[in-house]
Amino acid sequence: MMKAPCILFLCLVGTTFAFPEHLFGSRQFADPDPVVKHWALLVAGSNGWYNYRHQADICHAYQILHKHGIPDEQIVVMMYDDIANNEENPNKGVIINKPNGPNVYPGVPKDYTAEDVTPENFLALLQGEKPQSCNMCSGKTLKSDSNDHVFVYFADHGATDLIAFPDGELEKDDLMKVLKKMHRQQKFGKLVFYLEACESGSMFDGMSKDLNIFATTAANPDESSWGYYCNNSMDNCLGDEYSIHWMEDSDVEDLSTETLDKQFHIVKQETKKSHPQEYGNLTMSSATVNQYQASQGGEMHIMKDVLVREQTPISELDFVPSREVEMTMLYRRLMKTTHPTDRDAILKKIMVLAQTQRNIIQTMRSIIMSVTSDPEAVEAHLQRPEQLRVVDSVCYHSAVKLFSDTCFRLGQNDYAMGIIYAFANMCNENVPQDRILNAIKNVC
Fold first, then answer.
1. Active-site position among 38, 68, 149, 157
2. pLDDT-above-90 percentage for the chain
3. pTM
């Protein structure tokens, strides 16, 4: 059931943070296979000011890989690129991933931006194929082969068995088909996938261990992921909880000795609001992190006398459920604004957003009522089960796609993504697919 947005009062806490760029020291990575190349695909699947955190995460991830020696020609970055110079950004040209943190935007490749950030392009680039669209893109793809290691990091909104892009969605079945095809065609030796999204565990739940893929996710298949570093003067979440923990760990750890398993368990322990998961070939987690987040022979940036990672002070106000970020931040901005004109403008945004959210709920209710006249069945379909697994994926994804195309574009409305589980409920209860699709057409 959809929850009403929370009103949170802002208490600013002044803190000073240091980026590990000053933690310089050198050592050489030892890669077990001298012919291995390391490739990376970094994707922020959202746009808009209140999705700031996704592009901030991706920019930070790029800085980690770049400083650890992976050349730009082996890193492909997809992000809408509408945050650094956004009219609401108080520091033009600057993206930070924590309060008072460094600018992580400089140097980030603009390989695929704006309309080129699509699920079709993502799947093509992953396979080393020509992009489906290239308005102002670099044309770079992953040219990995059977010896190479591939690191994929994706940050955005998600729902059961799908993740979002600015103007589209990627279904679990389509991702799995491509990963299996890549394995058959020997497009990688080993692949590691870090996924930041709500219900992100659903994308890899049940994945075969035979694909030589190790995946970790921000959340299990049934829960939200959380915005992080949300208590700041920008009235925005600067990162995502799971993502911040793996990246701040990679900032300071000796990646030539730390294993993927150790990093996962550090992240799992430090992530308080969701439950990070691991999937696929878990034996791969015994490999060192540098085999995916660094280049063979790359320099390690770490100060030898640093024994533990600096802990950043946080409060409960630093956490916000992903789908409540926009409304929560608008309320926080309202609470500290005294100028009447500014208050009126913020109130107007709150009212428009609240009405949109009410419309989403009412639209879904109307669709369900068009399918069944049983009041108990209507309420049952509007409730999310504790452990939701899609039984009829064709029915579910057909309904989700039509809903996104005709009712509320999911890639641009994360709140709508929070209620599409109702389609899984109906499909799982054997409601005919045609009846569901006709109801969507009639209501929207």
1. 157
2. 87
3. 0.90
3-state SS assignment for residue 231 = coil
DSSP summary character for residue 90: S
| pLDDT value, residue 311 | 65
Per-residue pLDDT at 310: 61
CATH of span 20-293: 3.40.50.1460
397 is annotated as an active-site residue: no
Residue by residue, DSSP assigns 237-289 as --EEHHHHHHHHHHHHS-TTT-BHHHHHHHHHHH--SS--EEEE-GGGGGSBT
Rounded to an integer, what distance in angstroms lies between the CA atom of residue 335 and that of residue 339?
Answer: 11
**Residue 157 known to be catalytic:** yes
Q: What is the pLDDT of residue 187?
A: 97
- Domain pair 20-293 / 337-443, same fold: no
pLDDT of residue 435: 97
Are 166 and 414 in contact, with CB atoms under 8 Å apart?
A: no
* Residue 423 to residues 40, 135, 172, 359, Cα–Cα distance (Å): 34, 35, 16, 17
Q: What's the pLDDT score for residue 313? A: 78
**What is the sign of the dihedral through the CA atoms of 17, 13, 238 and 317?**
positive
**Positions of the chain with pLDDT lower than 70, given as ranges:** 1-34, 297-312
Nearest-angstrom CA–CA distance, 367 and 363: 6
Which listed residue (198, 230, 395, 407) is catalytic? 198
Spell out the domain ranges in the chain.
20-293, 337-443
pLDDT at 35: 80
Confidence (pLDDT) at 22: 34
b/e map 31-44, b = 16+ CB within 10 Å: beeeebbbbbbbbb
CB 69 within 8 A of CB 299: yes
CATH number attached to the domain at 337-443 = 1.10.132.130
